[in-house]
Design goal:
The protein is built from twelve helices and 35 strands. By secondary structure, the chain is an alpha+beta fold. Helix 6 packs antiparallel against helix 7 and helix 6 packs parallel to helix 8.
Length: 713
């Protein structure tokens, strides 16, 4: 009998429903133990209000529908702030037979209205007295900067670098914590550490910039205590708080018994948040410390301790040159580093190393008989884990620990991400990197069908050739000190992506029903294509930049006539792709693996064959843009391609035998198109949910494995 499991609300995970921001959250569920031929024909949703130990039925709704993901909210009334409800679901099949009820899934809304916030923003202890039994207690808190809170000497929650990175002039994320067990009779004390974080610390290129969103750290917090008589006691951040300079550390700073000292002073209450700043519970999973390593060292008291770290070793020493201005030394609270090796000098006591990462859910895996390819895929996953910290960073080890558009634009097919701080985009217009404003929302829209484009800007025909462009960045043919001088002319690469973005906007405008915009982008695309052909394409199909990137982009972006495509395709036969994939000499995908890479490098040759670090400045060793190869591994090597919503196509690869066997596991409510070789060519079958196996005769008519590309002369 089928079982309904894993009830979820919107994008929240089942265990993370304490901060729901939607008044009518959509509901999704999954199935287990599905019998052959099962098909949901309808569902029944029971909604109840949870009030401490009491449960009150609100509504029970039945609906004839096969939908089981993002099902609209069925109750008549929307939810209110602080409301706690539970949902359970059962479905019926074509025979009218019901499944058992699912387990209850609970959610509690956050503070949905600006008027629910009674606290003030203060620039910086709080000692509420508990004299009655407590049923529940909630702490709502946010900051300009990043914060960590303590109550009675214990850390609140397990979030790291909260509240995360957002566009602070438009949105401020708050967190909700259940602190019921942390309060005790008598006097309690809450303390909050606040640091600059992304709000006003130094971020960016060429030494970076400070005070991007403002010049003052601040936070606001609201503690709501519900007693057994249902009375609510609220304590808010206001002028009654006190602050002290954290460089003069107070060991008892968040304990009620801490006596007043001369270092404490009154906080400064600053202006309220502007009306245009939305207070939201946030999206995505929080950053947590996922691993801890304890290093136990002994030594005399007061000895200086220094921890220096780097991603790689060069001549048996830390290779810190690629980190540029970053000192790569240990720092205290509110910071993170990315390294593979650490050097410890003069240790006097225990040292804890903590691994922090976005608590994202892994949705795919890849395994084959080639251990090096498996390691390549693992490196992609590891690189993403190291870069996903509140937002997808360019690289996590140096001063580029921020979003650069080109990276998520290339890899958006795999992760979910937010858009970057727009400061750099306003300062220096740049093709490909800033095309992320179109490419990233398009990828998200294609995947989730709900994401809208953030920017709808169109250029007139081609890019101004006087503007500097990054182009085919870090082409191995480019000089180490000039990574924009690749075999494909940088200006031409900019033109290619301009046309591609215009074509994407045609699709987006069509999806949104904006026909005037669609016609405008069609006109612009047609003009840009004509000018591109006039400037860069010879009539026989040869492109002025006679390089792989130029031909690959022109083919993928459909910029050539059928005759020209044949000419370009002859220069990019499929053997090139697999030779690149399986080659062990640079440039090839397995070269970094052979050189000991653990995540993905920014350059093909970040480490040279002699073991030395590439002399170029752009040489980080955790830079997941090349992680886009994971899409090729899943779609081309494994043969698993999504055709449309809940439909997949799989084309298997043979293992060298005369028979090929395919085993397919198809998820519920999914149709799978299986294409496999046959004596007459190819055979196609469509199958639904379940386990399927196919066997066919296979005759290889090409070399396998392919020969790797010869090294550059």
């Amino acid at each position: 009998m089928a079982l309904v499991t894993n009830i979820q609300f919107e994008h929240y995970h089942h265990t993370n429903t304490l901060r729901v921001q939607e008044r009518k959250p959509r509901i999704s569920w999954r199935f287990e133990n599905i019998p052959s031929g099962f098909q949901q024909e309808g569902y029944e949703i029971e909604l109840s209000e949870e009030h401490f130990s009491q449960r009150t039925l609100i509504s029970t709704v039945q609906c004839t529908s096969r939908q089981f993901y993002v099902v609209p909210w069925q109750a008549d009334d929307p939810l209110n702030s602080r409301q706690k409800v539970s949902v359970r679901v059962r479905v019926w099949d074509k025979n009218g037979c019901f499944t058992p009820w699912s387990e209850r899934a609970c959610l509690e809304t956050g503070l949905l209205n600006r008027g629910d916030w009674h606290c003030e923003r203060i620039a910086a202890s709080w000692k509420p007295r508990i004299s009655e039994p407590v049923n529940q207690a909630r702490l709502y808190i946010t900051a300009q900067g990043i914060y960590e809170a303590e109550i009675n000497g214990y850390r609140v929650g397990d979030y790291f670098m909260a509240p995360g990175w957002t566009a602070c002039d438009r949105r401020s994320q708050y967190q909700t914590y259940d602190i019921t067990s942390m309060l005790s009779y008598g006097q309690s004390c809450i303390g909050v550490r606040v640091a600059e974080g992304w709000f006003c610390a130094r971020i960016g290129f060429e030494g970076g910039h400070r005070n991007i969103w403002g010049d003052r750290t601040a936070f606001m917090a609201q503690l709501e205590i519900t007693h057994t008589d249902e009375g609510i006691y609220t304590v808010v951040s206001d002028s009654s708080w006190a602050k002290y300079d954290a460089t003069q550390e107070e060991s008892r700073w968040s304990l009620p018994e801490m006596p007043p000292t001369p270092g404490w002073e009154s906080v400064l209450v600053i202006n309220p948040l502007p009306d245009q700043v939305e207070l939201t519970a946030g999206f995505g999973e929080p950053v947590r410390r996922t691993e801890v390593m304890i290093l136990d060292f002994k030594g005399p008291r007061s000895r200086t301790i220094r921890l220096s770290h780097a991603e790689v070793l060069e001549h048996q020493e830390l290779g810190t040159r690629p980190l540029r201005i970053c000192k790569a030394q240990y720092e205290p609270l509110f910071t993170f580093h990315a390294f593979r090796y650490v050097q410890l000098d003069g240790c006097t006591s225990n040292a804890d190393l903590e691994v922090s990462a976005q608590a994202v859910q892994k949705v795919s895996s890849f395994s084959c008989s080639n251990s090096l390819l498996n390691k390549l895929y693992q490196n992609v996953c590891w690189g993403m884990r190291g870069n996903f910290l509140s937002v997808p960073t360019d690289c996590p080890q140096r001063h580029e620990r921020l979003v650069l558009g080109g990276v998520p634009a290339m890899v958006m097919v795999t992760p979910n991400a937010t858009l970057p701080d727009p400061t750099w985009c306003r300062r220096v217009p740049c093709a490909i990197w800033h095309d992320v404003t179109i490419l990233a929302p398009l990828a998200l829209m294609t995947t989730w069908m709900k994401t809208l484009p953030r920017n709808q800007t169109g250029a007139t025909h081609l890019w101004d050739t006087k503007i500097f462009q990054l182009g085919d960045w870090l082409d191995p043919a480019a000089p180490p000190g000039a990574p924009w001088k690749g075999a494909t002319e940088a200006k031409m690469a900019a033109m290619l992506f301009l046309i591609h973005s215009l074509d994407c906007m045609i699709r987006i405008a069509g999806i949104l029903g904006k026909h005037a915009d669609r016609d405008y982008f069609k006109t612009e695309s047609h003009s840009a294509r004509k000018e591109f052909h006039d400037q860069y394409v010879i009539p026989n199909g040869r492109i002025t930049s006679d390089a792989q990137a130029a031909y690959a982009l022109a083919i993928c972006f459909d910029l050539l006539t059928p005759v020209q495509r044949v000419r370009a395709g002859n220069r990019l036969v499929e053997l090139v792709a697999y030779s690149m994939l399986l080659g062990k000499n640079c440039p090839a995908w397995l070269y970094p693996v052979m050189m000991g890479a653990t995540p993905v490098w920014e350059r093909w040759d970040s480490i040279l064959p002699d073991g030395s670090i590439n002399p170029g400045e752009m040489t980080p060793f955790n830079h997941y843009a090349f992680g886009a190869i994971a899409k090729f591994l899943l779609e081309r090597v494994a043969g698993l391609q999504r055709l449309a919503a809940c439909s997949w196509e799989t084309t298997p690869a043979a293992d060298g035998s005369s028979k090929i066997r395919i085993e397919v596991s198809v998820p519920y409510d999914t149709t799978c198109q299986v294409i496999y070789p046959d004596r007459s060519g190819e055979k196609t079958k469509f199958v639904g949910y379940g386990e399927w196996s196919f066997e066919a005769t296979f005759n290889r008519d090409h070399e396998w494995p392919v020969k790797p590309l010869p090294p550059k002369s």
